[in-house]
Amino acid sequence: MELNERILKYLEACDKVDTLKLASEFNEEHQKVVGAVKSVEALEMVVSEPIKSTKWELTEEGKLVAEKGSHEAVLYRSIPEDGIAQAEVMKTVPNAKVGFSKAMSLGWIYIDKSGAPLVKRKVESITDTVQDHLNEIKKGIDNLPDNVRNDYKKRKLLQEITIKSFLLSKGPQFATSIKKLETDLTSDMLLTGSWKHLEFKPYNFSALGQPPECGHLHPLLKVRSEFREIFLEMGFTEMPTNQYIESSFWNFDALFQPQQHPARDAHDTFFISSPAVSTKFPMNYLERVKKVHSVGGYGSQGYKYEWKLEEAQKNLLRTHTTAVSARMLHALAQRDFRPQKYFSIDKVFRNETLDATHLAEFHQVEGVVADRALGLADLIGTLDAFFSRLGFHQLQFKPAYNPYTEPSMEIFAYHEGLGKWIEIGNSGVFRPEMLLPMGLPEDVNVIAWGLSLERPTMIKYGLNNIRDLVGPKVDLQMVQNNPICRLDK
Fold first, then answer.
1. What spatial distance separates the first Cα and last Cα of the chain, rounded to whole Å?
2. Which residues fall within 8 angstroms of residue 74, CB to CB, at 6 or more apart?
3. Engineering a disulfide at 222: which of 245, 379, 454, 485 sits with its beta carbon 3.0 to 4.6 angstroms away?
4. Average pLDDT over residues 379-407
5. CA-to-CA distance for 210 and 50, rounded, in angstroms?
6. What is the C-alpha to C-alpha distance for residues 229 and 484, in angstroms, rounded to an integer?
């Protein structure tokens, strides 16, 4: 017979019963009995009234005393007839400090100071009342006066336990057998009309529903938000970067990157097959770019090769957001010049072999400052201000080569957590061969720097493999559990 039916059968013979008694009668766990009661109570077959009771139980120390004797009795029995030094007693007897104090106050022992001080027995025999009391409590007999019980509680020999149970009585729908109630109203019930003769389980409209799964920000988005806030704090304007497909002209030629450069090979760049080419360009600007590449200009001898429009027209997935910077600087040159600070954080695409540190699709963080008479000192000062907000306060710079910046510098920072110098970005001053064909004034210089978004995120969240951060192998639990990003500003 099911437990809930056994409860109903038992309740049929009496008016009221405590769930604790039922647990004892059925030899079941009390919590299991309570669960069965709740199920029949929902059917209004029983009514339950919560009740509380208290009882005294022995603590772990109390159980030890009940078995081996009180601390004072144990100490009394450990004293030989001719006495023992107090220091020896305190060192060899368990709980000697409490036992000595209690035995002295009860008059069981004394200190003989006639010679060398010795602890001696004062009485021939003792009765261990504490042990007797605790054994009675252990058997369920509690006749102790309140002052004695409280004393044992202070000595941590007894503890008061609150017991919660339910007093059951018959409900309005009481029966000894449980009728199965319908839980769903089906289309068949409506078509046949059988619902009129069926009994339905009452719905609990106060019950909480299943909590819906909420969306969670990916670690990359959390770090991106922090980067964006830093740029905005420094007075930068965000560039529009929603155009993933660029022509080779804006991605390479406008940046004074030669058409025979290895980066323009299909092994490094994703070229688009449809539409394969772009045809709309600012033609005057395009002619100036063609000239500086092929024959030079603005004090430069150029690359001395035959520049081809067909190569510049090829469409591709942008390999860097510097293509967007080139568009913004060209637009800036078409009006009266005012100093500007731009930034962008968005996706770029490289034809890379996927491994633990490389992806074919990743994010580039770029900052660009255009002003008159800017130089290397301005670049280093701006970088120091930017990276200090990221929590990097020790920077080093290494000379590097970029086709569109001169001088160029790789940026290294000392990472306190890793205990070593790590490369965190690239930077430089844009070349005149890139800026002057746009129409910018000759005394205007542009400083720029860039870094990936994935690398700082991996460092921040302690990830060693970039595929644990993005891609099909990402642990969604990691995305859900990781805290909000807090860069050490």
1. 68
2. 68, 93, 94, 95, 99
3. 485
4. 86
5. 27
6. 14
Residue 467 is encoded by which pair of tokens?
Answer: 């595929």
pLDDT, tens digit, for every residue of 23-80? 888 888 988 988 888 888 877 888 889 988 888 889 999 999 999 999 999 999 999 8
Please, are residues 433 and 298 in contact by the beta-carbon 8 Å criterion?
yes
**Single-letter amino acid, residue 267:** H
The number of angstroms, rounded, from the C-alpha of 60 to the middle of its chain's C-alpha atoms is 39
CB 314 within 8 A of CB 277: yes
Tokens of 129: 């009342």
3-class secondary-structure state, position 383: helix
**DSSP letter assigned to residue 297:** B
Rounded distance between C-alpha atoms, residue 164 and residue 33, angstroms:
13
What is the distance between the alpha carbons of residues 248 and 269, in angstroms, rounded to a whole number?
Answer: 10
Strands lying side by side in the sheet with 158-170:
16-18, 158-170, 46-58
Determine the Cα–Cα distance for residues 333 and 428; give it in Å rounded to an integer.
20
φ, ψ of residue 429 in degrees (nearest 5) = -105, 125
**What is the helix (H) or strand (E) element at residue 19, kind and residue range?**
helix 19-26
Q: Tens digits of per-residue pLDDT, 291-348?
A: 999 988 888 888 888 989 999 999 999 988 999 999 999 999 988 889 999 999 998 8
A 10 A CB-CB count for 207 gives 6
- Model pTM above 0.85: no
User: Bridge partners of 297?
Assistant: 300
Determine contact, residues 30/157, Cβ cutoff 8 Å.
no
∠ at Cα 254 (249, 258), nearest 5°?
Answer: 80
Residue type, 458: M
Question: Which residue is it, tokens 């202070």?
Answer: 154
The answer to whether the CB of 289 falls within 8 A of the CB of 283 is no
Crossing angle of helices 129-138 and 60-68, in 10° steps, is 120
The candidate with the shortest Cα–Cα distance to 459, out of 182, 102, 220, 162, is 220
Rounded-to-integer distance, Cα 193 and Cα 89, Å:
89
For residue 472, how many other CB atoms are within 10 A of its CB? 5
